[in-house]
Specification:
Blueprint (H helix, E strand, L loop, with lengths): L1 H10 L5 E3 L5 H4 L4 E3 L13 E4 L4 H14 L2 E4 L12 E5 L2 E5 L6 H12 L5 H15 L3 H18 L5
Parallel strand pairs: 1-2, 3-4
Antiparallel strand pairs: 5-6
The structure holds ligand SHN and 1,4-dihydronicotinamide adenine dinucleotide.
Length: 164
């Protein structure tokens, strides 16, 4: 779990510190600060976001509680409702992102929706075309502009499989 979360947080541009007595080599090989020791409450100071992902459920509860009290965003890997942050399934293509969160623990649904959205995401060429059409429409006089934007809207909805 720590490995998956660390990869997600690094991809988001965060500085990641990992605190655990045992750290997987694949995790230690990432650009994270690895500290091989048990968690201590002082680890929360200076943190903006905390992930409690140990195999000790009572400890994850305590970390989540301490982080909440300190006003630090926290994800509880075993029981998301005890934390203040959930991790979504993310579909991404050419800069367009769609994140799916079920608001509960149903990762299979999140993944199924992510996969179905992924297949509908436009590619770079379509995005460039739509952006150019929108920019061109915005230079038109009011009536023509509205018609051009409506036509573009219909094309985009058709392309991503939405209702026209
Ligand atoms: C609450 C949440 C975490 C949070 O946000 O804090 C959570 C909780 C739990 N997941 C568990 C298991 C698995 N999770 C996955 C996969 C994903 N799990 C993800 C999200 C979330 N999982 C959040 C809710 C999301 C929502 O519903 O909206 C995804 C979307 C994103 C990500 O994690 O990166 C990613 C799919 C990414 C993708 O495909 O895009 C797999 C499959 C796999 O690993 O291949 C399994 C094994 C199969 C199974 O068990 O289903 C367990 C049991 C743990 C145990 O056994 O103890 C719990 C805890 C519990 O249920 O209590
Ligand atoms: N959200 C999700 O999708 C999933 C959540 N989980 C949950 O995540 C948690 C961890 O699961 P895994 O990563 O599979 O376990 P794991 O056993 O691979 O890793 C647990 C880590 O916790 C560390 N640890 C133990 N005591 C510690 C302490 N006192 N201080 C700091 N670190 C300590 C260990 O050194 C180890 O590195 C479990 O609570 C499990 O229920 C598990 C799988 C999927």
């Amino acid at each position: 779990m720590a490995l998956r979360r660390a990869a997600t947080l690094l991809a988001a541009g965060l500085d990641v510190r990992v605190v655990a007595p045992a750290i997987l080599p694949e995790l230690a090989a990432l650009p994270v600060r690895a500290e091989r020791r048990p968690y201590a409450p002082a680890d929360l100071s200076g943190a903006r976001l905390v992930v409690a992902a140990t195999d000790d459920a009572a400890l994850n509860d305590a970390v989540a509680e301490q982080a909440r009290a300190a006003g630090v965003l926290v994800n509880h890997a075993g029981e998301a409702g005890r934390g203040t942050l959930r991790f979504p399934a993310v579909a991404e293509r050419a800069g367009v992102q769609v994140a799916v969160s079920t608001g509960r623990e149903l990762p299979m649904l999140a993944r199924a929706l992510r996969e179905s959205v992924q297949a509908r995401l436009p590619d770079e060429a379509e995005l460039r075309d739509w952006t150019a059409r929108r920019e061109a429409a915005l230079t038109l006089a009011v009536t023509e502009r509205a018609a051009a934007l409506r036509a573009l809207d219909a094309d985009i909805r058709r392309a991503v499989g939405g209702a026209a």
